[in-house]
Amino acid sequence: MGRRSCLCFLVGLSLVTFFASMRVQASPCDQGFINPLTKVHWPCIFPIQIAGISIGSKTPLDADNPKSPICFCPGSFGIPTPGIRINFWAPNRWIDTVENPGCMMPLGVDILPGTGQLHGGSRNTHRQATTFAQMHYYIAPVWAMLGLFTDIPCLDTSGFDVAMMSEVLPTYQNEILGAIINPEAVLFGNPAALLACVADAGLSHTGGTLDTLFWCMGGWGSTYPLGGRSSSGDIVEANAAIAAKQIFMMGRLGLLRNSLRSGCGERLAPIWQKSLYKLQMMKPVKQSSCVNIGRTGLLWTSRMHPPHHDNYAWQVFEKEYCCVTAF
Fold first, then answer.
1. Percent of the chain whose pLDDT exceeds 70
2. Which of 44, 225, 267, 294 has the greatest number of CB atoms lying within 10 Å of its CB?
3. d(Cα 275, Cα 267) in Å, to the nearest integer?
4. How far is CA 68 from the centre of its chain?
5. Could you please report the per-residue DSSP string of 295-312?
6. Domain-by-domain residue ranges, the chain?
7. 91 Cβ neighbours under 8 A, 6+ residues apart
8. Where are the alpha helices (DSSP H) in 72-169?
9. How far from 188 is each of 142, 198, 315, CA to CA, in Å?
10. pLDDT at site 4
11. Taken in order 316, 322, 326, 327, is the CA torsion positive or negative?
């Protein structure tokens, strides 16, 4: 084990010890670490495209892959360097959406009391169903954590980290404050903008999405406001929608990057491309598939909500475009 790996392991162990020492009571989070070997649904990494040859069945999300097997990246002295194009789905991020504030699902610990104004939950009225959940966003490059495919230059090799906790964001708890930070939300809160989402919802049910309608999440509702609330009557679908919102929110905060279609690096993504992401539930039940953003819960949430288990952990798969050169 190298010096960097030892350091990452010690830091991670210290964090776990710190979180465990802060735990004030037993909670539904006390279920142990997430083991990526057993909790990640590995068929979701397919299809993999190598030099124009696809391995695994294609889906509507993969309809827009670059067709050329050869790619070129800037080289020394401005001379383009040829390479082989590889496109794949990488399990790089984890998101948990939790009713219990401070519940760190991947770590299996609860670092805050389970009561107070930050507590989430679901309720149904005669008018509308509402679900609210706190969120934690983790940098978790699973392949790098397991030491797999280290020879692919485009893999995320950063260590495990907690990138965002919604409990510290006032704009997450209060939608009015969120609208001040993201004033463009006013533009998409009208009937015309919401009517445009019908097209995205129809396509999402078949496994696709419309990237141009970035304010829509298919059958999961609107991306705005960027808080922890969803109006879906299906609690599993509602938590999936809250998780998807956080991908978009990370982009609005300048913390989201997408690989370039050329395969030669990354760019900031203040506006997300929904077609570059798909989700898979890891807890409380391991989902035996992954879903594109917006796919209606009627098609996949059956028996995914055990009684009294309202904390969810999600694996985020990101589409990666990579140009593997000889130099």
1. 86
2. 294
3. 16
4. 28
5. --GGGT-TT---TT---E
6. 25-325
7. 36, 40, 44, 45, 140, 141, 142, 143, 315, 316, 317
8. 142-146
9. 35, 14, 28
10. 47
11. negative
Give pTM, 2 decimals.
Answer: 0.87
DSSP 166: G
Do 312 and 29 contact (CB within 8 A), yes or no?
no
Tokens of 124: 């149904």
What CA–CA distance (Å, rounded) separates 143 from 91?
7
Sole residue written with tokens 């995205």: 200
Contacts 24+ apart (CB under 8 A), 186-191: 188/215, 188/222, 188/223, 188/224, 189/222, 189/224
User: pLDDT digit string (tens) for 209-236?
Assistant: 999 999 999 999 999 988 899 989 899 9
Fill in the amino acid letter for 311. N
The identity of residue 281, as a single letter, is M
Residue 308, sorted as left (phi over 0), alpha (psi -120 to 50) or beta, turns out to be left
**189-193, Cβ contacts within 8 angstroms, sequence gap of 24 or more:** 189/222, 189/224
Rounded to whole angstroms, how far apart are CA atoms 122 and 230?
A: 9
Residue 314: CB atoms within 10 A of its CB come to 25
Nearest to 14 by CA among 127, 107, 153, 126: 107
Tokens of 4: 């960097």
